[in-house]
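Box 4.2: Ligand-aware structure prediction
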Amino acid sequence: MKITVLGSGSAFSSPRRFNSCYFVESGSRKFLLDCGSDAMRAMQKAAIDFFSVDSIFITHMHADHSAGLPGVLTAMHVMGRKEPLKVYLPYTQTEFAGLWLANMFIFAEKWSFGFSLIPLKSGKLNLGDGAELQFIETKHLEKYSEQAERLGIVAVSFAVIVREGGKRFYFSSDLSSLKEAAQHIAGGVSFLEATHPPLEEVAAVSGNNEAGIYFTHIPMELEDGGEWREKLDGKFGIKRLNSVYDGQVIVL
Ligand SMILES: [Zn+2]
Ligand SMILES: [Zn+2]
């Protein structure tokens, strides 16, 4: 299994850290986990072959995880991709996504390749060749439930585990608390997000980094060398944040 970090930034991305996007090669499959608003540029910068991606999995519809989809689909079309593409989105929002894309005049039947929008639900997806994806619902969007329900929207978000043979990769995506991640981080490699959980929780992990635990979704105040980071170190004891960086490749 090979993971290329394309975007390790928070919703407020920067030239150093793009929005959430990861390229995973597992078994015979090559796919994106998340497609944040910088995804096209992030793929170009890391020299990812736009034709090689067979699927895109979007963990939730916040723009820093989903808004790059129209650009990536357009880039693939402009380049003349032929292979079909599967796009998995939270199960409550595939219909919206179809209309969203249609309103940008992105139609599968007009595109150089076919793409399908597939509802993503909690559970397991067999990738073949002994590889498997598991999606776990998280509480990240619960704070929007009241407003969302008024519009008939289910506020659903997912964390992801990729398994291949004995290898294991856990990606928390966005969480309300690292407690949600605790039961999933044993063994393999884990990417935990650093923006939304209480900083005391980030500090607790950063002070006791187990092998294989990396932070991602890094907000600017947690970047090394900044004034905020020094203040946060004084207040929360965040010593060494073992974070991934854009362009980093991790092979399991
Ligand atoms: Zn996010
Ligand atoms: Zn989010």
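In the box above, the bound molecule is zinc ion. Residues 165 and 240 are 32 Å apart (CA to CA).
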